[in-house]
Structure formats: C-alpha cells, structure tokens
Amino acid sequence: MARRRYIITYDISDPKRLRGVAKTLEGYGARLQFSVFECLLDRMRLAAAKAALQDIIDTSEDQILFIYLGPEATDVGLSMESLGRPYRQRTMVTIV
Q: pTM for this one?
C-alpha cells in the first residue's frame, strides 16, 4: 500500500485529552510544532490513527484536522517554508 503524506493538527480544549492526542500522534509521525504533526500513512495506519484519536477526543469540543499533501512518491515537489526557526526535515521511524 502506498503511503500518503498528511499534516495533522489539533485544537483540544482539555489538558488530559490534549496529552492523549499528542502521545497518540507521536506513534504515527513527527512533531513539527506543539499541535502539528507530519505523518506518512497508508490507508490502514490512517484508519488506525483516526480510530485511536476518536476514542480520546470530545467531538463536541475538540477538532483534529487531517491535511492531505499527496503521495509519498511526490516528495520531490514538497516544499515547506518557515518564518523564524527553520523547518527541519525529520526522519520518521515507525515502531510496531
């Protein structure tokens, strides 16, 4: 299965749920900022991440956005620019 690149960002109102979401996403990708992760996910891992996050959040108060950036194979055209501290490309290691 081909992996796809996602930016996953969240706005969680409760500190306990916030920690749970952050800890869960650490297992799926690299943290870019406090509430922003870059993740390479195939369909099964994306579904698993969504299911795990669904169990943590309060859907009436919290929000998680999954921003699709395209397939991993198109990384050549991927460009990230930052103001302030530079963006560092991270090597993602998946531990199962």
A: 0.80
